[in-house]
């Protein structure tokens, strides 16, 4: 690769560039092979209604099952989420499997309102994304409101031609729920909440984990929650790990939460069992037990 940059360019001798290139190549290869062999699968993490303590939805998170059975998350194939071909392949694969799993849980009578997927800007800008999503929903006999699409706020930064906004508007008009992921960490301005078709914000886990560490952090979380509420948005706190964090988020009126305190991301099979327990709690026991730890 470095050779392409030409003679006499010092990049030729920069080992870190070669390493970076090699790392990317490996990520693409890993993803390509995994998709080809059916080893790219979502794991699922429950999202709870904090006041009723019931599961509202689950988030699908991409995982690769290695040939030795070990499971790796996006950190091991991060670059692939930023290269058009593999990003699209990952997101489409996860969309299809997640909707299929969700439809199966619904058909078993399990009580769950939505499935959340993460979409990269490359995927959203791809040809016929709206049609693809709506077809996948119809194919699984699901309604648009069963699907939540999580995007990071930064995708609006390179949306000069409004293509992404337009796609999200069409999905939103069709009834699909749009969530801003990692809210508060990006470069988006608050006007995005007003100008873009967003129904839900996910407060980034760095704010949740920082609760109690500084007065400033706590004030930001409170402000994000009340901003979301006054704009009539659903608010999900990400990365709740302790009872103290849960108590705080409930007290400030955050509606939903997810995190290791409830469950780590688990396989479709484990999630099916988890939902069975959560959907049909023992009499008097409204607190679903913690799984997947
Ligand atoms: P995200 O969408 O913000 O997902 C939340 C991440 O936090 C997940 O990491 C999840 O496993 C982790 N997490 C959940 N609860 C806790 C907690 O209590 N404590 C801590 N420390 N972490 C928690 P994961 O699965 O490694 O995913 C990382 C990121 O990769 C995701 O962040 C998302 O941006 C991206 N990603 C995952 N799946 C997909 C996908 O199918 N497509 C695309 N485009 N991106 C994906
Ligand atoms: Mg329900
Ligand atoms: Mg997400
Ligand atoms: Mg997030």
Count of discrete alpha- or pi-helical segments spanning 4 or more residues: 10
Distance between the termini: 43 Å
- Can you tell me the overall shape? globular
Q: What small molecules does the structure contain?
A: ligand C2E, magnesium ion
Helical/strand content category: alpha/beta
The pLDDT mean sits at: 89
Q: How are the SSEs placed, and which strands pair?
A:
Blueprint: H1 15-36, E1 40-49, E2 54-65, E3 71-72, H2 84-107, E4 114-118, H3 121-124, H4 129-139, E5 147-152, H5 163-174, E6 177-183, H6 191-195, E7 200-203, H7 205-209, H8 215-230, E8 234-237, H9 243-251, E9 256-257, H10 268-279
One magnesium ion binds next to loops.
Question: How would you describe this structure to a colleague?
Answer:
- This protein is of the alpha/beta class.
- Helices cover 41% and strands 18% of the residues.
- The chain contains ten helices and nine strands.
- The chain has helices spanning 15-36, 84-107, 121-124, 129-139, 163-174, 191-195, 205-209, 215-230, 243-251, 268-279, and strands spanning 40-49, 54-65, 71-72, 114-118, 147-152, 177-183, 200-203, 234-237, 256-257.
- An eight-stranded mixed barrel has the order 1-2-4-5-6-7-8-9, surrounded by six helices.
- Strand 8 (234-237), helix 9 and strand 9 form a beta-alpha-beta unit.
- Helix 1 packs parallel to helix 2 (84-107) and helix 4 runs parallel beside helix 5 (163-174).
- The longest helix has 24 residues, at 84-107.
- The model is unreliable at 1-6 and 281-293 (pLDDT under 50).
- One magnesium ion binds at residues 111, 113.
